[in-house]
Specification:
The protein contains three helices and seven strands, in the order ααβββββββα. By secondary structure, it is α+β, with helices and mostly antiparallel strands. It has a five-stranded antiparallel beta sheet. It is globular. It has a single domain (4-166), classed as Peptide Deformylase. Bound molecules: ligand K2U and nickel (II) ion (NI). Nickel (II) ion binds next to helix 3.
């Protein structure tokens, strides 16, 4: 199982690369990567497992965060009706979005960033995401609320974007990759 030692931290170049498309149908290797990723996110939300293995709770993970520059994300997050969205997507793509924006009141964090970075992160309030699931199904999901935010956060990782890149007015010294600002 993946633990925090497998999570790449800011400053590693893989987090600034454009991840490569996954050849479909996904190979067994890519399916295994995806399965480990969703397992990590689910484990990170289980208090006993998270405590036992020192996992930081997460609602999403992108393959570059485990050092793999491929367009794979895993998300395990309740929507506004408390319906669970738990999925892996290969080659996810935001195909449309609202003009309206939203943000998390307390800003965002990242499993690859071991520090607080203050500031609001503007996100599209509603998005339509297309991609391919672990089972090989091509999906098109319309998302809003926290699910929309987490998908944007994870797809940013596939494009080498960190959440703090989007914080307006944040002094560049806080955007430095190196912990010694
Ligand atoms: O990609 C990651 O680093 C996982 C992040 C994803 C994320 C961060 C901020 C906003 C949306 C998604 C982790 O899940 S950070 C922990 C977390 C947990 C619950 C809600 C928000 C953030
Ligand atoms: Ni992140």
């Amino acid at each position: 199982m993946l633990t925090m030692k497998d999570i790449v931290r800011e400053g590693h170049p893989v987090l600034r690369e454009i991840a490569k498309e996954v050849t479909l149908p996904a190979s067994n290797e890519d399916k295994e990567i995806a399965q480990k990723m969703i397992e990590f996110v689910i484990n990170s939300q289980d208090p006993d497992i998270a405590d036992q293995y020192g996992l930081r709770p997460g609602i999403g993970l992108a393959a570059p965060q485990i050092g793999i520059s491929k367009r794979i994300i895993a998300v395990h997050v309740p929507d506004e009706r408390d319906e669970l969205i738990s999925a892996v997507l290969f080659n996810p793509k935001i195909v449309s979005h609202s003009v309206e924006e939203t943000h998390l009141e307390n800003g965002e964090g990242c499993l690859s960033v071991d520090r607080e970075v203050p500031g609001l992160v503007p996100r599209y309030a509603r998005i339509t995401v297309k991609g391919t699931t672990l089972e090989g199904q091509d999906i098109s999901w319309r998302l809003k609320g926290l699910p929309a935010i987490v998908f944007q956060h994870e797809i940013d990782h596939l494009n080498g974007i960190m959440f703090y890149d989007r914080i307006q007015g944040l002094d560049d010294k806080f955007k430095k990759e190196l912990p010694n600002l």
